Protein backbone atom coordinates (compact mmCIF):
# COMPACT_ATOMS: atom_id res chain seq x y z
CA UNK A 1 0.00 0.00 0.00
CA UNK A 2 1.35 3.43 -0.92
CA UNK A 3 -1.51 5.62 0.24
CA UNK A 4 -5.19 5.89 0.95
CA UNK A 5 -8.22 8.03 0.18
CA UNK A 6 -10.87 8.83 2.83
CA UNK A 7 -14.38 10.15 2.24
CA UNK A 8 -16.94 11.39 4.76
CA UNK A 9 -20.02 13.11 3.37
CA UNK A 10 -18.60 15.67 0.92
CA UNK A 11 -15.17 15.85 2.55
CA UNK A 12 -12.24 13.99 1.01
CA UNK A 13 -8.64 13.44 2.07
CA UNK A 14 -5.72 11.64 0.44
CA UNK A 15 -2.44 10.48 1.91
CA UNK A 16 0.61 9.05 0.16
CA UNK A 17 3.75 7.70 1.78
CA UNK A 18 6.66 10.07 1.07
CA UNK A 19 8.74 7.15 -0.17
CA UNK A 20 6.28 6.60 -3.04
CA UNK A 21 6.42 9.93 -4.87
CA UNK A 22 4.69 10.05 -8.23
CA UNK A 23 1.27 9.42 -9.65
CA UNK A 24 -0.49 6.90 -7.44
CA UNK A 25 -4.03 8.14 -8.16
CA UNK A 26 -5.12 8.51 -11.76
CA UNK A 27 -7.44 11.23 -13.01
CA UNK A 28 -10.05 8.51 -13.49
CA UNK A 29 -9.64 7.39 -9.86
CA UNK A 30 -10.21 10.94 -8.63
CA UNK A 31 -13.19 11.46 -10.92
CA UNK A 32 -14.74 8.16 -9.78
CA UNK A 33 -14.54 9.34 -6.17
CA UNK A 34 -15.56 12.99 -6.64
CA UNK A 35 -18.27 12.80 -9.34
CA UNK A 36 -20.88 11.09 -7.11
CA UNK A 37 -20.06 13.51 -4.27
CA UNK A 38 -20.50 16.54 -6.52
CA UNK A 39 -23.81 15.14 -7.79
CA UNK A 40 -25.07 14.52 -4.26
CA UNK A 41 -23.72 17.53 -2.33
CA UNK A 42 -22.95 20.12 -5.01
CA UNK A 43 -19.42 20.62 -3.71
CA UNK A 44 -16.43 18.73 -2.36
CA UNK A 45 -14.21 19.93 0.49
CA UNK A 46 -10.74 19.03 1.69
CA UNK A 47 -7.98 20.35 3.91
CA UNK A 48 -4.21 20.46 3.48
CA UNK A 49 -1.59 21.18 6.12
CA UNK A 50 -0.18 24.66 5.58
CA UNK A 51 3.37 23.25 5.40
CA UNK A 52 2.41 20.80 2.62
CA UNK A 53 3.19 22.82 -0.51
CA UNK A 54 2.91 19.78 -2.79
CA UNK A 55 -0.57 19.00 -1.45
CA UNK A 56 -1.66 22.60 -1.96
CA UNK A 57 -0.49 22.54 -5.59
CA UNK A 58 -2.27 19.21 -6.10
CA UNK A 59 -5.69 20.38 -4.91
CA UNK A 60 -5.33 23.66 -6.82
CA UNK A 61 -4.67 21.73 -10.06
CA UNK A 62 -7.85 19.75 -9.39
CA UNK A 63 -9.87 22.98 -9.16
CA UNK A 64 -10.17 23.48 -5.41
CA UNK A 65 -10.31 27.06 -4.12
CA UNK A 66 -9.00 28.11 -0.72
CA UNK A 67 -11.85 29.01 1.66
CA UNK A 68 -10.25 29.22 5.12
CA UNK A 69 -7.16 28.57 7.24
CA UNK A 70 -7.31 27.45 10.87
CA UNK A 71 -4.62 25.99 13.13
CA UNK A 72 -2.19 25.06 10.38
CA UNK A 73 -4.81 23.62 8.01
CA UNK A 74 -5.91 25.26 4.78
CA UNK A 75 -9.48 24.39 3.82
CA UNK A 76 -10.50 24.07 0.17
CA UNK A 77 -13.73 23.57 -1.74
CA UNK A 78 -14.74 22.95 -5.35
CA UNK A 79 -18.03 22.74 -7.19
CA UNK A 80 -16.51 21.04 -10.21
CA UNK A 81 -13.40 19.03 -10.89
CA UNK A 82 -10.90 20.67 -13.19
CA UNK A 83 -9.68 18.18 -15.74
CA UNK A 84 -5.98 18.80 -15.32
CA UNK A 85 -3.09 16.53 -15.99
CA UNK A 86 -2.00 15.33 -12.57
Could you characterize the architecture of this molecule?
The chain has 86 residues and is an alpha+beta fold. It has a single domain (3-17, 26-78), classed as Aminopeptidase (3-Layer(aba) Sandwich), CATH 3.40.630.30. The protein is built from 2 helices and 5 strands, in the order E-E-H-E-H-E-E. The strands form 2 sheets. Strands 3-5-4 form a 3-stranded antiparallel β-sheet. A hairpin with a 2-residue loop joins strand 4 and strand 5. The chain is globular, with a radius of gyration of 12 Å.
Key features of this structure:
three-stranded antiparallel sheet, 86 residues, alpha+beta, Aminopeptidase, two-stranded antiparallel ribbon
User: Helicity, in percent?
Assistant: 25-40%
Q: Describe the biggest sheet?
A: 3 strands, antiparallel
Poorly predicted runs of 5 or more residues: none
CATH architecture: 3-Layer(aba) Sandwich
**CATH fold type:** Aminopeptidase
Q: What separation lies between the terminal Cα atoms?
A: 20 Å
Question: How many β strands by DSSP?
Answer: 5
What is the CATH class designation? Alpha Beta
Order of helices and strands: EEHEHEE
Number of domains: 1
CATH superfamily: Gcn5-related N-acetyltransferase (GNAT)
Q: Report the radius of gyration as a whole number of Å.
A: 12 Å
Shape: globular
List the total number of helices: 2
- Helix-strand category: alpha+beta
Query: Residue-averaged pLDDT, rounded?
Result: 86
% residues in beta strands: 25-35%
Query: Strands of the biggest beta sheet: in what spatial order?
Result: 3-5-4
Amino acid sequence: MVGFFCVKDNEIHAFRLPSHAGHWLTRQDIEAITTPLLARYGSVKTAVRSINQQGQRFVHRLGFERIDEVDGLIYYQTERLRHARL
